[in-house]
Amino acid sequence: MSTDEPSVPIVCTECETETSVPLSDVADALARHNDGKHDGEEIAEVDPALKDRLADLVAEDLGLFDEA
């Protein structure tokens, strides 16, 4: 793992836990947690605040916020 790789916060509201994992491990960490603790139900997720911010950045980059 590169030391420059960003960490991504993941949260589980049901377990009341939060952790950070390297970006390249996010999908595996979420699947492992949800499979092991929640019978595969997608409870743990990337921090919703981060998901919202990323969605805003993508929309801005695509020009979706530009006035028509």
Automatic annotation (TrEMBL):
DUF8149 domain sequence ranges: 2-67
Source species of the chain: Halorubrum rutilum
Protein name in UniProt: DUF8149 domain-containing protein
